[in-house]
Amino acid sequence: MRLCKRGPLLPFGLGFPELLVILAIILIFFGAGKLPELGRTLGSGIRNFQKSVRGEDEEENANKELPPSSSKSLPTNKEEA
């Protein structure tokens, strides 16, 4: 983290005032009602990405059991004498 006259800079050279401007633009663009939904969607996307990187999706798919096959008795072609 670099220091400048105003204080520490965040990644990409952004400071606190720049982040406030970006957040204000997002608030205007999406509106206050959509922000919780946007955050929820972003969070679930990040969680799914982390699971796929760890390989948890493959384990879940391998552990899922197939539905039991129907064990109906099939008719036989044998004629009883």
Task: List the keywords.
mainly alpha; 3 helices; 81 residues; elongated
Description:
By secondary structure, the protein is mostly helical. It has a domain at 16-52. It has helices at residues 16-30, 35-54, 56-63; strands spanning 3-4, 7-8. A two-stranded antiparallel sheet has the order 1-2. The radius of gyration is 28 Å and the shape is elongated.
Describe the structure concisely for a colleague.
With 81 residues, this protein is mostly helical. It contains three helices and two strands.
What number is the mean pLDDT?
A: 76
* Helical fraction: 40-55%
Low-confidence stretches: none
* Structural class based on helices, strands and sheet pairing: mainly alpha
Strand content: under 5%
State the total count of DSSP E strands. 2
Distance between the termini: 91 Å
Order of helices and strands: EEHHH
Radius of gyration: 28 Å
Spatially, the strands of the biggest sheet line up as 1-2
Shape: elongated
**Number of helices, counting only DSSP H or I runs of 4 residues or more:** 3
Oligomeric state of shown chains: single chain
Major sheet size, sense and barrel closure: 2 strands, antiparallel
